[in-house]
Specification:
The protein is an alpha/beta fold. The chain contains eleven helices and 13 strands. It has three domains: 118 residues, Periplasmic binding protein-like II (D-Maltodextrin-Binding Protein, domain 2, 3-Layer(aba) Sandwich), CATH 3.40.190; 95 residues, 3-Layer(aba) Sandwich (D-Maltodextrin-Binding Protein, domain 2), CATH 3.40.190; 80 residues, Double Stranded RNA Binding Domain (2-Layer Sandwich), CATH 3.30.160. The radius of gyration is 19 Å and the shape is globular. The chain starts with a strand and ends with a helix.
């Protein structure tokens, strides 16, 4: 009998949910697996927004180190946290079917029907003048400031339930927060969604809503076990989004947004202060995600994206 595959994960409720989903999916395929919880730098340093920290891979490096050292066999990541360039010796083995990639607005008083509340920029537009919105994502901060120059951004870190709780309690004077819809739904917190934000109004992070299952490149056993979990359509779409991020030489914390709906790839770069924003799109040919990414990157650069990224 083969030894159980060891799945490396962060310890947050969402990360555990994601890893447990992978374990259950493997079990359905007859593969035994166990979870190994690993603390990352992003979990330890919660006193500053991520974009103020130096380096990359705040939620992935320690897990990748364990993978390279042979302490685990599979790393489960929120794909939006995974840098586009993987360490030598590691490979992305599978991308399961993607959940909703959209952003969600959480307020003190959710809209009727949770995720069925008002959508698009109307959710942001409905906030009172000078509203205090919680987020520590530079991409979200920039787009929110572009849409509403009057709002005040409040740094908000912590796991998903903690952030939701701070909004519900009005801690730090918070009126609202922006979180990934997928994380809220996975943790059965969808009832707190006041508005699902249109991805073309508040564009998500590249790979948002998707999981990335990483292995050692030479581990044929782990690759074979994970192969049934791959969703080809999701994998191609997030590959295009990540290729756009790589083409713009942006990191996971850069104000670069991307969204592929299976027909077109959209990309956006916003000045950190919200003073300017450029958006572009190109037809998406599913078999060649890099071509679409290159086209969108060229269009964004022609509109001044490099300047907005400080280059």
């Amino acid at each position: 009998m083969s030894a159980a595959l060891r799945i490396g994960t962060r310890g947050s409720a969402l990360a555990r949910w994601q890893a447990e989903w992978v374990r259950s999916a493997l079990a359905a395929c007859g593969v035994t697996a166990e979870l190994v919880v690993i603390r990352t730098r992003g979990d330890a340093e919660v006193d500053r927004p991520l974009h103020q920290l130096e380096g990359k891979g705040f939620f992935t490096k320690e897990i990748e180190d364990a993978l390279l050292a042979g302490r685990i066999d599979v790393a489960v990541h929120s794909l939006k946290d995974l840098p586009t360039a993987l360490p030598p010796g590691l490979a992305l083995a599978a991308v399961p079917r993607r959940a909703d990639p959209a952003e969600a607005l959480v307020t003190r008083t959710p809209g009727p029907g949770g995720a069925g509340g008002a959508g698009g920029a109307a959710g942001i537009a409905a906030l009172p003048a000078g509203a205090r919105i919680g987020t520590s994502s530079l991409r979200r901060i920039a787009q929110l400031r572009y849409l509403r120059a009057d709002v005040e951004i409040v740094p908000l870190r912590g796991n998903v339930p903690t952030r939701v709780g701070k909004v519900q309690e009005g801690r730090d004077g918070l009126d609202a927060a922006v979180l990934a819809a997928a994380g809220l739904e996975r943790l059965a917190l969808g009832r707190h969604i006041a508005a699902r934000l249109d991805p073309l109004e508040v564009m998500p992070a590249p790979g948002q809503g998707a999981l990335g299952l990483e292995v050692r490149a030479d581990d044929a056993r782990a690759r074979a076990a994970l192969a049934p979990l791959e969703d080809r359509a999701s994998a191609r779409q997030v590959a295009a989004e990540r290729a756009l991020l790589a083409a713009l030489e942006g990191g996971c914390q850069a104000p670069v947004a991307a969204y592929c709906d299976g027909v077109r790839l959209f990309g956006r770069v916003t000045a950190p202060d919200g003073s300017a924003q450029v958006t572009a799109s190109a037809a998406f040919a599913g078999e060649d995600p890099v071509a679409a990414a290159s086209a969108v990157a060229a269009l964004l650069r022609a509109q001044g994206a490099s300047r907005l990224l400080g280059r």
